[in-house]
Amino acid sequence: MSQRDALAVGGHTRLAAVLVGVVAGAISLLRLWWGNPESLTQVVWAEDGVFPLCIEKAGFLTCLVDPFAGYLLVLPRLLAGVVALVPVEQWALATNLLAALMAGVVGALVFAVVRRFGLGWVASVVIGLLPVVVPVVGFEAINALGSSYMLLLYLSTLVLAFPLRSHVVSWPMTIAVAVLLLLTTLTIPTAGVFLALIVVQVVRRAVPWRAGAVWAGVILLGLVAQLLTALGAEKPRAINASGDSFREWVDSVPETILTFWPGLRLESYDFFGVFPVSPLPITGAIVALAILIGGLVLVVRGGDGMVAIGLLLLTGVVVGAVPTIIGGSNNRYFVVPLLLWAAAAMVALDPLARRSRPWMVAIVVVIVGAVWWSALPASWFRTMPAPPWQDEVLRVENACMADPALQERIIFSPYWPPDWGDALSEPTHPNLPCTVVVGKWLDD
Q1: C-beta atoms surrounding 291 within 10 Å
Q2: Phi, psi angle pair for 49, to nearest 5°
Q3: Which of 180, 175, 183 shows the shortest CA–CA distance to 159?
Q4: Do 117 and 350 form a contact (C-beta atoms < 8 A)?
Q5: Is 88 helix (H, G, I), strand (E, B) or coil?
Q6: In 10 A of CB 180, how many CB atoms?
Q7: DSSP output for 175-194
Q8: What is the per-residue pLDDT for 131?
Q9: ω before 387 within 30° of 0 (cis)?
Q10: Which of 113, 217, 322, 375 could be joined to 262 by an S-S link, Cβ 3.0–4.6 Å?
Q11: What residue spans of 356-440 are helical by DSSP H?
C-alpha cells in the first residue's frame, strides 16, 4: 500500500469513527427519551447528582479523591466537575448531554481501535455501538455518568486485546494508552485484570515490552491508590464473598446472556399446563466453564484474532465475577461481560460478515432490531423522575428561604439514596446545608 493509499484509509477510518461516535451518542439519548421524554430534563440519576452536590459543598479537589463505596471513582467525579458549573436546575440536562458525549467518544474510539486492527466495517461498527444498543444496558446503565466506568472497562479491554499490528508502538501512543489505563484503574479497581492482558500480549510480542512495562506500571500505581483509599474509607465497601455468592454468579451467567433475546429465561414451568419442565441445575456452571475454558484455549493456541476473542471472553468472566462474588448479584455487574462477549462474537463472525452481501447484512440487522425492539426504550426504573428534578430543587430552595439555618436532604432518582444516605459519608452525602442553597443556588 502506497503512502497516499495509507493516508486515504486512515482518513476514511477517522471520518467513519466520528460518524459512529455521533450515532452512538444519539442512540444513548434516544433510548432515554424513548423510555420517558421527561427523563432528559427531570432525571438526575443517583450518584450523578450526589457527586456534583459534593463539589457544591466541599470543592472539586476534595470530592475528586473522596471514597465512594470504599474506593475511588475518578471519571464520574471529573465529569461531575463539569455538571457543577451549570445552574442546578439544569443538572439533569447537563448530565444527560455529557453522558451521551461520553458514549459517543468511546464508540468512536472503539471503532477506530478494532478497525485499525483489521476487522471489517460491519464488525467494527457493531462493536463500536454495542455499549448503547445491547438490551441489558437499558435496564439501568444507559446514559449515566456513574456507569461510565463500564465504558472505560470496555474500551480499555479492546485496546489491549487489539493492539496495533506493529512491534513498535510510538511513545505518543504508549502515553495515550497509559493515561486511559490509569484513568480506568483510578475509576474501578477491577481494572487490575488488565495486568494479565498485558503479560499475554508482551509474551506473544504483540506489544513491545517497554510499552507493556509502562502500562503495567500505571495500573499498579492506580491499584495502590485504590488500596490506600479503601483502607482509609470512613465507610469501607462490605466484602461478603461466600460459596453462596459464587453460586449466585454462576447461576446468573446464563440468565443474563438470555437478555440478548428479551423475554427468555431459565425457569421451571408446566408445558401446555400439564407437563413439568425444569432447567438443568448446573446450566450456569456449564455455561461459565465453557466461556472460561474456551477463552483459555484461544489465548494459548490461537492467532491474533483468536487470542483477542479469548481475552474478551476471559476479561468478561473476571469483571463480572469479582464484584458479584464479593458484593452480591446486580444487573450492573453483567453489563461489561455481555458487551465483551458480544464483541467476541462479532470478531468471530467478521469473516462471514465480510463475505456477505449488503442486503444480507441488512436483513440480519432488521431481525436483530425486531428481537430487541421491545427492550430498546430505557426501563421505567431508569427513566421515571423519582422525584422530578426541578420540583425537588424548588422544594429545597423554598425550605431554605424559609429557614436559612436548616439542613436539607436532597433526593435523586430513583428516590436515591436509600435510607436517607446512611450508607454514605460526608462530603459525598445528600445532606445539604441551606447556606449552600442561599449562598450559591439562589444567587445564580
Answers
A1: 20
A2: -100, -40
A3: 180
A4: no
A5: helix
A6: 18
A7: HHHHHHHHHHHHH-GGGGGH
A8: 98
A9: yes
A10: 375
A11: 358-372, 380-383, 389-402, 434-436
Residue from 28, 40, 33 nearest 133 by CA = 28
- Helix (H, G, I), strand (E, B), or coil: what is residue 432? strand
The cell numbers describing 204, all together, are: 506473544
In the beta sheet, which residues pair with residue 428?
425
CA 338/CA 260 separation, integer angstroms: 9
- Check: CB of residue 181 under 8 Å from CB of residue 194: yes
Please, where are the H alpha helices in 188-270?
194-203, 209-232, 243-257
As a whole number of angstroms, the distance between CA 217 and CA 426 comes to 32
d(Cα 424, Cα 415) in Å, to the nearest integer? 15
Q: Phi-psi bin for 50: left (phi > 0), alpha (psi -120 to 50), beta?
A: alpha
Q: Locate cell 477510518: which residue? A: 13
Give the integer Cα–Cα distance in Å for 386 and 396: 15
Q: If we measure between CA atoms, which residue out of 324, 350, 326, 352 comes closest to residue 337? A: 324
User: Which residue in the block uniquely carries the three cell numbers 510510538?
Assistant: 170
Q: 147 to each of 45, 68, 109, 143, 153, how far by Cα in Å? A: 10, 13, 18, 8, 10
Measured distance CA(22)–CA(247) in Å, rounded: 40
Q: What is the CA radius of gyration of the chain?
A: 23
Kindly state the cell numbers that stand for 327: 458484593
In the numeric block, the cell 447556606 is attached to 435
Contacts of 253 (CB under 8 A, 6+ apart): 284, 287, 288, 291, 320
Grid coordinates standing for 324? 458479584
My answer on whether omega of the bond before 417 falls inside 30° of 0, hence cis, is: yes
